[in-house]
Please model this.
Amino acid sequence: MAAINMMQLSYRCPKIEVRQSKIHGRGLFAKADISTGDVVLVKGGHIVDRKTLREKITPRLGPVEIQIDDDLFIAPVTQEERELSMLYLNHSCAANLGMRGEITFVAMRDIRAGEELTHDWATTDDDDYSVECKCGAPNCRKVLTGKDWQRPELRRRYAGYFSVYLARKIAASCHSEQSEEPHNRSSDHVE
Ligand SMILES: [Zn+2]
Model:
């Protein structure tokens, strides 16, 4: 066990390990089979707004955060905390982990030992970035944006696995589309 002052900020289930990844740098890999719905990771850190993240954290620590609401992120704030909070979870356009809530990552399907664990930024992010993707998945989008959660095919693919704050936006936009349709309520209702 680590000393109390070096306690992990994030949780990693015992079935996974950090190794070199073909996608990017270090990644997370299954050491044993993982079942659909298993909790794999829980992100820990400080809750910060976008301004603090961009001005004070990203320049020093790099991309270390998970977005949890429109203007809230969870991230380490010091170099020492970085290792204790980092998930080393790469993006894939064919992700095998989805969200339960805003900080908990669960297996969206059965995952075999040896597979890399991945998350699709579309399930957590609502931002204004646009970056090239080289994840290597057959269905790679090539360009990732902070608005990918709005894409219909991703809403279908990740239904039930979006961060809750995004799921609420998706439900609200579906509701407003439905309410534009005419109601079929019968007008000649007889008592
Ligand atoms: Zn990709």
